[in-house]
Structures are given as C-alpha cells and as structure tokens.
Amino acid sequence: MGPEKLDAEAVADHLHKMEGWVLAEDGASIWKAFRFKNFAEAFSFMTQCALAAEKLDHHPEWFNVYNRVDVTLSTHDANGLTELDFKLAAKMDRAATGRMPDHLK
C-alpha cells in the first residue's frame, strides 16, 4: 500500500504554509516556477533536489531551460497529493535558497 491521498482541507493547510506553490485546477498536483541567476545555479538546484527525491523515493516532474526550473509534484500511485509531495516541495524551497545540505536533510 502506497502513501495516502490528502483531503482538500489538508492540502489547503499545507499550501497556506508554503510560498509560491500553486494547486492545479483538478487538485491533483502542485506547481512552482523557480528562477535562478544562470544555468549553473539552476542545475545545482536540480542536482540537490534529485538527491533529496531519491532519498524520499519520490520524483518530480520538471522542466528546465537555462535559469528556469518549473516543477510539478503529485503522487501518481495515490492519484493526487500526499505528504511526500509537500515534503519534497519543502526540500526544494530550502535548496532554492541555498539552505539544504546537512546531507540533503
């Protein structure tokens, strides 16, 4: 059995505590656009996030062009959002501000 899908109230509570993450119209995913000074910073962010995602065994959908990284998170096994999505989102936010390591928390 996989992670449990969050109800709308729990999703709203999580989103209220996070900056910049947007709920998709269907309520099944969250999305955020990250912007960096250059490609190297964007790639460094993606590298940190990839390692954190591996530790969680939960992987983002993302799109990168130069200094932009657009991220969509959802738990496909649950057909919606779970705690894993919000844990990874928080790690991504920390990585974007340069506060992650402690070995990828």
Quickly describe the structure:
It is built from three helices and four strands, in the order H-E-E-H-E-E-H.
How would you describe the overall organization of this protein?
The protein is an alpha+beta fold and 105 residues long. A four-stranded antiparallel beta sheet has the order 1-2-4-3, covered by helices on one side. A hairpin with a 2-residue loop joins β3 and β4. The longest helix has 18 residues. It is globular and about 40 Å long. The two termini are 25 Å apart. The model has no long low-confidence stretch (mean pLDDT 91).
Supply the key terms:
single chain; 105 residues; 4-stranded antiparallel sheet; 39% helix
List the SSEs and their pairings.
Elements: H1 8-16, E1 22-23, E2 30-35, H2 39-56, E3 61-65, E4 68-73, H3 83-96
Antiparallel strand pairs: 1-2, 2-4, 3-4
Helix pairs in contact: 2-3
